[in-house]
Structures are given as C-alpha cells and as structure tokens.
Design a protein that fits this description.
alpha+beta; 9-stranded mixed sheet; 8 helices
Length: about 260
C-alpha cells in the first residue's frame, strides 16, 4: 500500500510542474489532527488512516485521543482470516475495534510489546473494549463506495481481497461522494479515504494557484516529505481513483 501510491501521487503532483520545488497550495481549511505517525515498511496504512479520522473527529468535539495502531495490528494475530501481510480496509478496523477494543498511543508504541489489558484515563480504569465504546460507538461510522456498475444506494460487499471480513459499503454516485466528503471536512468531521493501494485521513481543503481544488490528507509515512506528513490530492484524482470512504453517519447526514 505504499510503493504504487507513491508513484501515482508523485505523478499527480508533478504534472505541469517545471520546477523541482513543491507545488504551492493555499489551505482553505485544515482541521485539527494528532501528530503524524510512520507506518514504516508495514502495509497497515488502513489502520493509521481510520484511527486518524477517528482522532480528528474527537478533536472537533474538544476531546483529545491519540490511538495505537500497534494494538490493532497485534489483535490481528488472533484473527484466523487475517492475511500475513496485514492488509485490510477501514471497515475492518471498525470491526476489530468493536471486538478487541483500543488503547492509547502512549500505552503501546510497538507491535512487539504485549497488548495492555487496561486503559487508565482521568483517574478511571477501563478495559480496551470499554474505552473503545467511548471512542467509536458500534454503528457510528458509515462505509461508502462508488461503483457505477452496481446498484446505487444499496449496501454492497467491497470487492477486494483486503476486505477479508466481507464488510458491505453503501454505494452512491461519485458526484454525491465528493459532495459528502467536502461537506464533512468543512464541518470538521474526520474522514477516511482510500484508493486500491493506500489509505489516508482527509483533514482539510485547499486550492492551487490555478484554482484547482484539493483534499488535504494526513499520511502515515512520517514527516520527511515536502508537506511534513500531509498530501494534496486533487478532486480530479479523487474522482478517478477513490475506492472507499468512511465518515460518521452524522457527517453523511443520517440521524
């Protein structure tokens, strides 16, 4: 989930550029987020991205949470259907949180360490499952996709081997998906975005010097890249390559 996306994104950002300097963008909106993390050589971007979306959602409420991707990676060892490469989808992360819970980032910073059995916060003690219910309620998030070859406004199993839990996504037209994504971000919701090779959290909206619009995405490759851990993905690229999107039902407009 790293090499192929790097190539495509570099091509995207460099088309029309005649200089080596990074392209200039004007941020229209940049939502609050936790520090950028680094997935290293793992293929767990879907974990980092969905957790980042949940963290941004909570920051918008004034509730700061910083969650451990290594805990989820560790819990995958208990899943017989989990692939050895540890790939997955955003809905997979939601299912694993519901089953195994979640812990804070400071409680588990390496996958090699034992998974904590307790979460200590504000003088109280919780199990990871109890803590998870305060972070991400069952059914709170809505997985979305856009496939013009399948019926719209029906829940359809996302067709990829990474969807090893066989989760179903609401299929809506791409125009609607873009509108929903932009509206959610402008209302400060956390949003997961994925193409077939990579996943990131949408954290803002920007435009370039020609007025073309971009989603600002929080990546999980550290801060050494030109935009210090952020990536600028054009609406055009979003339209052509988006594979899945996840936001809260509230962000989508459901009660």
């Amino acid at each position: 989930m790293k090499r192929f996306f790097t190539i495509s994104l570099v091509l995207l950002l460099c088309i029309g550029c005649t200089k080596k300097e990074p392209k200039h963008f004007t941020n229209e909106l940049l939502n609050r987020m936790t520090p950028v993390k680094d997935q290293g050589e793992s293929e767990t971007c879907w974990i980092y991205a969905m957790l980042a979306a949940i963290e941004t959602e909570h920051l918008a409420w004034g509730d700061s949470v910083n969650l451990s991707p290594y805990y989820i990676e560790k819990m995958m060892e208990q899943e017989p259907a989990a692939p050895k490469n540890k790939r997955g989808e955003a809905a997979t992360l939601l299912r694993l949180i519901e089953k195994y819970g979640i812990v804070g980032y400071d409680a588990m910073r390496k996958v090699e360490t034992p998974a904590p059995k307790w979460v200590f916060m504000l003088g109280a003690t919780y199990t990871p499952q109890e803590f998870a219910r305060s972070v991400c309620k069952p059914g709170e998030y809505l997985p979305l996709m856009s496939d013009s070859n399948k019926p719209y406004y029906q829940e359809i199993e996302l067709d990829t081997k990474d969807n090893w839990l066989h989760d179903r996504y609401l299929n809506i037209p791409m125009d609607s998906l873009i509108i929903k994504a932009e509206r959610a971000v402008r209302h400060h919701h956390g949003v997961f975005w994925g193409d077939e090779n990579h996943g990131m959290a949408i954290v803002g909206i920007a435009h370039d010097d020609d007025g073309e619009k971009y989603f600002i995405m929080k990546n999980s490759w550290g801060t050494d890249r030109p935009y210090k851990g952020l990536e600028y993905v054009s609406f055009e690229y979003f339209r052509k390559r988006t594979f899945s999107l996840v936001m809260t039902k509230e962000a989508y407009g459901l009660p």
